[in-house]
């Protein structure tokens, strides 16, 4: 039981390059949420104080609480939980309910205003508190239409935002740290609240769930003594109802504007760059930059997220992927005057620089965080902004047009790339970038094979 291992501090410590990582994020992952505030949100962690024993289940845009521990502290079985979920599905058929969960998609300042109005009612306050204190939210979704367009997948769209108010966007409470989404058609995934937890700890949880699914322990258990799931009730005033309608319009607008595409790349995997003593991550970073250059004929500021968990309470850092070395490589790749051996040397040099930048970032030895911290400090304390922050070169260097991250996954035998942009942004064409990246990866593989290092180190 993942929750028990967190509470008992028996969760195996994770390591990176032989060094232990901070595990504190796991203690904040469950029974936590963000609460809207006037200027800033508050992160609230209930696990240590009250240690809740219930989850929230969202079904048909309605919310229920389900006790997942017995009075003696033992967890309910999978069979018992299944019975509880069936009870919820059978009792949530009414369609004239107010979509309260959609309010969590509002701009934070607006949500703060209506949150305070919502919880003025004692019944509403009790319902909101039950959701906020729950271990997690389990969203039982309606099946969405399947799309068969190339690079299009409905699953990540459904998990990310629910597909709009016509489908499942109101079947969420986006302020919760963890929401597990399960569709009628078997679609499944989860969303995390990035303010509380990062991707790598979530993937450890995902790996644990995946491994547990391979060895299910379904057994008939007594259900007579199970307390019935409790529906959470909300009293909606006219102004809250207006806010709900506003939320619906905003969600549908953003859902329609979001261009999310998936490339399942099965030409080759990490074994190819590793066979040439090249970091797969750095190899892909250079491929992304080359693909961008092929489209726009110019380089851009690009960064890759890095885990800072070598430090206590470490979160995320920024690896500056674009460098003079990467620029030299991408500019040379399609130059017919350049020999393949020179292109490979430039690739290897760019990769060395990227790996050096990565090592410096995860050890807290780079400048981006320092510059950002000074800038934020000046803003918060009303200190005149130092002149360096008006320098165009600094602004260009830190105006990232490509934001990238990668997480390790087990149980997959291909590489999957997920691209997100806005359809209203005419400068970005996600489909073109995907097509170009796919071709670029194949071209870079050919370069490695054509310039294969011989025993003496020459090509």
TrEMBL record:
Q: Locate the active site.
A: 194 (proton acceptor)
Q: Do the record's keywords include Acyltransferase?
A: yes
Q: Which UniProt keywords apply?
A: Acyltransferase, Transferase
Keyword tRNA-binding assigned: no
Mind listing the GO molecular function terms for this protein?
carnitine O-acetyltransferase activity
Position of the signal peptide: none
Domain Choline/carnitine acyltransferase as annotated: residue spans: 1-409
- What biological processes does GO assign it? carnitine metabolic process, CoA-linked
Q: Which InterPro entries match?
A: Carn_acyl_trans, CAT-like_dom_sf, Cho/carn_acyl_trans, Cho/carn_acyl_trans_2
**Per the record, GO CC terms?**
peroxisome
The cross-references to Pfam families, in alphabetical order and at most eight, read: Carn_acyltransf
Family indicated by similarity: Belongs to the carnitine/choline acetyltransferase family.
Q: What is this protein called?
A: Carnitine O-acetyltransferase-like
Q: Which organism is it from?
A: Pundamilia nyererei
